[in-house]
Amino acid sequence: MPISWSPPSSSWILATGFTNLRMNFLLETLQLIVLSIYYNVEAIIKCIIPTKKKDVTGEIVLITGAGSGIGRLMALEFARLDVALVLWDISQEGMKETARLTKEKGASRVHYYLCDCSDKSEVYRVAKQVKREVGDVRILINNAGIVTGKKFMDAPDSLIEKTLEVNTMSHFWTYKAFLPAMVDNNHGHLVCISSSAGLIGVNGLADYCASKFAAIGFAESVALELLATGKDGVKTTIVCPYFINTGMFDGCSTKWPTLLPILDPVYVAKNVVNAILTEQSYLLLPRSMNLLMALKSFLPSKQSVILGKYLGAFNFMDTFQGHQKKRN
Ligand SMILES: NC(=O)c1ccc[n+]([C@@H]2O[C@H](COP(=O)([O-])OP(=O)(O)OC[C@H]3O[C@@H](n4cnc5c(N)ncnc54)[C@H](O)[C@@H]3O)[C@@H](O)[C@H]2O)c1
Description:
The chain has 328 residues and is α/β, with parallel strands linked by helices. It has one domain: Rossmann fold, CATH 3.40.50. Helices cover 51% and strands 12% of the residues. The longest helix has 39 residues, at 10-48. Residues 64-65, 67-71, 88-91, 94, 116-118, 143-146, 166, 193, 195, 241, 243-244, 246-249 line the site of nicotinamide-adenine-dinucleotide. GO terms for molecular function: oxidoreductase activity, acting on the CH-OH group of donors, NAD or NADP as acceptor.
């Protein structure tokens, strides 16, 4: 008996398409729910049981702004881990001192280079020199930073531009210089030292906040680009600390030190290095910043404003002196 075949009707195609779409929706939603439960349980377990730290022996670690503050202190933390340290700063004296201190702590390979990270061509030139003289950087810590400390309308254009060039644009240039080798080997770690001022706007810090928000947006997007291309061996960490007692924000005060303490630089450096070794994607310090961020996302805006006032965010910068205090 001859078999007859007729093409499916358009209503059948539509109905099948709709059923497939519904199936896909159900399957993907189920997958989302199961994985969400899994990752939440994993996060809770990680809070209770300390995560295993990765071995960085022999890795090349580059820290920008390593001539003082937490840049120097992170270098000192890495000095114990048998890595090759590459220090960048605009202060030759500062780097010399960091190099001396890291050697005292046991670092055997320390290299330092004068490099203004805000200058794209200088970053590319010095990056080539590092590759030639030391090798491929595996852990890149974008830490160099500056603050104007002036109200937006009082800040000279040149300082606003410089703030964005140092705190944000330099991250673009260092990534361009060092990321390709990490991607080729599917191995590396990108660290963005931002700030709590990159999560919440602050009265008197418009240019600084803009530069730190932008640094987070950039780092987060590159992290997703890496995941989307399957380069999951290149890890990323974004760090957002509140005020640290390094001199950068000298004169600023915190209203409720128990809730939001001015952070000890050694504590911050230790926590950043720990976050890198345990491959944490985000580090907010103090931990109470996590609660503030959660509140910011759902509180009515007027309530956020009174909460900001209560926490002193309107007056943090009133007594700002910054590094000037030391220079005078
Ligand atoms: N101190 C704080 O309260 C605080 C809070 C949150 C985030 N941060 C961030 O932490 C990072 C480190 O700050 P810190 O407190 O150690 O300050 P710091 O002033 O002690 O250190 C900054 C270092 O960056 C260097 N630097 C400045 N411009 C540079 C450039 N163009 N190229 C290369 N190096 C340059 C400086 O010479 C200095 O050694 C900064 O990105 C800062 O924004 C600081």
